[in-house]
């Protein structure tokens, strides 16, 4: 059974501003180091991406995969954006969420991620790759949203 990695960071931007960065998938290769290429495959009627294809190179984990997104977001940008894996070559799970909370005009972002791979991999390496993905994503999100 896959375990989950979780981490949080406070960003000096409103939840709406942080959400704008998160929702701009096509810009991920500019700031999310492990994401090499992104293609939006489907959008909901409200303009939010529904399915997105990513090419990932996170050291021990390299793959091209498709995620399905659920947007449980309020008008102010607070709420939960979650995703689940639709298909991949190496990954058998890449499920997670961003939770955005307003903390006095700033945003607390909690990132939860579960990664599992089809090929045998030492649990320690898998957890390390998860932690790298989560920590790097939060730091790079903070840098991008505060720019």
- Adjacency order of strands in the biggest sheet: 1-7-6-5-4-3-2
Total of helices? 3
Q: Would you tell me which CATH topology applies?
A: Alpha-D-Glucose-1,6-Bisphosphate, Chain A, domain 4
User: Which runs of at least 5 residues are low in confidence (pLDDT < 50)?
Assistant: none
Secondary structure category? alpha+beta
- The share of residues in extended strands comes to over 45%
What is the strand and helix layout of this fold?
Blueprint: E1 4-11, H1 15-23, H2 28-31, E2 35-43, E3 49-58, E4 61-73, E5 79-88, E6 91-103, E7 106-117, H3 123-146
Antiparallel strand pairs: 1-7, 2-3, 3-4, 4-5, 5-6, 6-7
Helix pairs in contact: 1-3
Structural description of this entry:
By secondary structure, this protein is of the alpha+beta class. The protein has one domain: Alpha-D-Glucose-1,6-Bisphosphate, Chain A, domain 4 (2-Layer Sandwich), CATH 3.30.530. The protein has 3 helices and 7 strands, in the order βααββββββα. The chain has a 7-stranded antiparallel β-sheet. The longest helix has 24 residues. The N and C termini lie far apart (39 Å). The model has no long low-confidence stretch (mean pLDDT 88). Pfam families: Polyketide_cyc2. This is SRPBCC family protein.
């Amino acid at each position: 059974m896959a375990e989950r990695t979780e981490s949080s960071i406070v960003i000096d931007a409103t939840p709406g501003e942080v959400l704008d960065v998160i929702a701009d998938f096509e810009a991920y290769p500019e700031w999310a180091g492990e994401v090499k290429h992104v293609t939006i495959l489907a959008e909901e009627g409200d303009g939010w991406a529904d399915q997105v294809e990513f090419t990932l190179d996170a050291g021990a984990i390299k793959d091209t995969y498709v995620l399905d997104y659920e947007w449980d977001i309020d008008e102010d940008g607070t709420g939960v954006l979650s995703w689940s894996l639709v298909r991949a070559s190496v990954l058998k799970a890449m499920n997670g969420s961003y939770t955005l909370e307003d903390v006095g005009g700033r945003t607390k972002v909690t990132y939860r991620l579960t990664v599992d791979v089809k090929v045998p991999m030492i649990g320690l390496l898998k957890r390390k790759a998860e932690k790298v993905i989560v920590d790097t994503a939060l730091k790079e999100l903070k840098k991008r949203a505060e720019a």
